[in-house]
Design goal:
The chain has three domains: 8-95, Rossmann fold (3-Layer(aba) Sandwich); 99-313, Mur-like, catalytic domain (UDP-N-acetylmuramoyl-L-alanine:D-glutamate ligase, 3-Layer(aba) Sandwich), CATH 3.40.1190; 322-456, Protein-Tyrosine Phosphatase, Chain A (Alpha-Beta Complex), CATH 3.90.190.20. The chain has helices at residues 16-27, 42-50, 62-65, 82-90, 97-102, 118-131, 146-152, 164-168, 195-202, 222-228, 284-300, 304-310, 341-350, 372-378, 390-396, 409-419, 441-456; strands spanning 8-12, 31-36, 54-57, 70-73, 93-95, 108-113, 136-140, 157-161, 177-180, 214-218, 236-241, 252-254, 259-262, 272-275, 322-327, 330-334, 355-359, 379-385, 402-406, 425-428. The longest helix is centred in the middle third of the chain and has 17 residues, at 284-300. The mean pLDDT is 91. The strands form three sheets. It has a nine-stranded mixed beta sheet with strand order 7-8-6-9-10-11-12-13-14. A six-stranded mixed beta sheet has the order 15-16-20-17-18-19, with helices on both faces. The protein is 34% helix and 21% strand. The protein is of the alpha/beta class and 458 residues long.
Length: 458
């Protein structure tokens, strides 16, 4: 008899990961119930109905849920939710979709986490493997369910973007290569406002690593350096850095702006050099993302020649330092994904030309101090695009030659073009959430790109 036959599995949350988990569990013989406190999207209802999976929306059947042998919790559900507190009190095993999927595949994987840069690094790593001819799948936080792909399980490798919320309920998942890009304060409301707890959540990615695995991490990140010391893992450490580290032997280190030196004795006899000059990614943070992705690809078996050949054809996800137009020698860059101060810092630092900066939105308790020196050096004008720009005004009024306010993205783009000279960059890098004027950061980025496009048509 199948070990899972008749075992009751409840999936909480019916988004991409939850529905994928339900479909895989059904195939593997579980008795599955999907329960969502909100409304299911029609596409997900259709998938569940077609597979004959029971689901409920708008409420949780507490009594039935508490009879589960195991619960798969979607990443967005906080521990303080009433249903989660009841499940924990009953002592029911709670896992993530990532754990469930990893039970049913023998494929190798590269798991990538970090506060900033996850999506870029995941997409780039996937691109490097795919272009080198690997049979590789892309999954996790990039919007594709790992569990649903494991039903067919046609890949030799998976590249997974993993958020801290996904890692919180991951117990058995063991990547071949674990990648940790950086740790900075974010989502602290889910971690009792403790940076240490948030960092330990990220470091769960390393918990099952052994001597056959690799851990690629950012040696320039002080929080990683500090917190990783408390994690006892016997694995192959592959730190990367933008500059020489006195106490760390780096596996990837920049020799110059465009040359990354690799020293990975596990896969190569001699040090190797990778020319990254043809990569379309800009900014210091992207040099870190590049180092991480190249290291991960290299230990997976991609050669330096294959990496160099693939770099120029990489296209990043939208809204991440994405060029969206050139009008009269002025470049327009959409970095709407920069919803926190650190991401905006990377953008301002990465752009070498004079900047007309469009920023603002829903402030998340931001401290703009770190952006002030960059604004003084590089920003010709700041256009505040938000309902309440008081904090931005206070922080930057004395730092930039010109500051204006608007609640219209079309007006912001029009004024930016008027204020910019040939050779300048108009940069949308808000440092804030988007919910005051837009549905989300994608909506903000799309409206910005459309406004630029309508200017080019004039």
């Amino acid at each position: 008899m199948n070990a899972t036959e008749g075992k009751k599995l409840v999936v909480l949350g019916a988004g991409e990961s939850g529905v994928g988990a339900a479909l895989l569990a059904k195939v593997k013989g579980y008795d599955v119930l999907v329960s969502d406190g909100g409304v299911l999207k029609p596409v997900y209802k259709e998938k569940l109905e077609k597979a004959g999976i029971r689901y409920e929306e708008g409420a949780h059947s507490m009594e039935e849920i508490l009879r589960a042998d195991e619960v798969v919790k979607s990443p967005g559900i906080p521990e303080k939710a009433e249903i989660m507190q009841a499940i924990r009190a009953k002592g029911i095993s709670v896992i993530s979709e990532i754990d469930l999927a990893s039970r049913y595949t023998k494929a190798q994987s590269i798991g990538i986490t970090g506060t900033n840069g996850k999506t870029t690094t995941t997409l780039l790593t996937y691109h490097l493997l795919k272009e080198a001819g690997f049979n590789v799948g892309l999954a996790g936080n990039v919007g594709y369910s790992f569990a649903e792909q494991v039903i067919a399980d046609e890949h030799d490798w998976y590249v997974l973007e993993l958020s801290s919320f996904q890692l919180d309920d991951t117990h058995d998942y063991t990547p071949t290569v674990a990648v940790l890009l950086n740790i900075t304060p974010d989502h602290l409301d889910r971690y009792d406002y403790s940076l240490e707890k948030y960092a330990q959540s990220k470091l769960r990615l390393t918990r099952n690593l052994d001597s056959s695995s690799y851990f690629v991490y950012n040696a320039d990140d002080e929080v990683i350096q500090r917190e990783y010391q408390s994690v006892f893992v016997d694995t192959n450490d592959l730190p990367f850095s933008l500059q020489t580290q006195p106490h760390v032997r780096c596996a990837a280190l920049y020799r110059s702006e465009s040359v990354l030196r690799l020293e990975v004795p596990e896969v190569q006899d001699e040090p190797e050099e990778v020319d990254i000059s043809r990569s379309p990614l800009i900014g210091q943070h992207n040099r870190q993302n590049l180092a991480a992705a190249i290291l991960a690809a290299r230990v997976a078996g991609v050669t330096v020649e294959q990496i160099e050949a693939a770099l120029p054809t990489f296209r990043n996800a939208d809204h991440r330092l994405q060029p969206v137009g050139d009008i009269g020698g002025v470049r327009f860059i959409n970095d709407s994904k920069a919803t926190n101060v650190e991401a905006a810092w990377f953008a301002l630092d990465g752009v070498k030309a004079p900047i007309v900066w469009i920023a603002g939105g829903t402030d998340k308790g931001n401290d703009y101090t770190t952006l002030q020196p960059l604004a003084e050096q590089k920003v010709k004008a700041l256009i505040c695009l938000g309902v309440d720009n008081t904090k931005l005004r206070t922080a930057f009024e004395s730092k930039v030659p010109q500051l204006e306010e608007t609640q219209s993205v079309v007006e912001a783009v029009r004024r930016a073009q008027e204020l910019a000279a040939p050779g300048d960059v108009v940069l949308l890098s808000p440092a804030c959430a988007s919910f005051d004027l837009f549905k989300n950061y994608e909506d903000r980025g799309r409206q910005f790109a459309q406004a630029v496009e309508s200017l080019t048509l004039k």
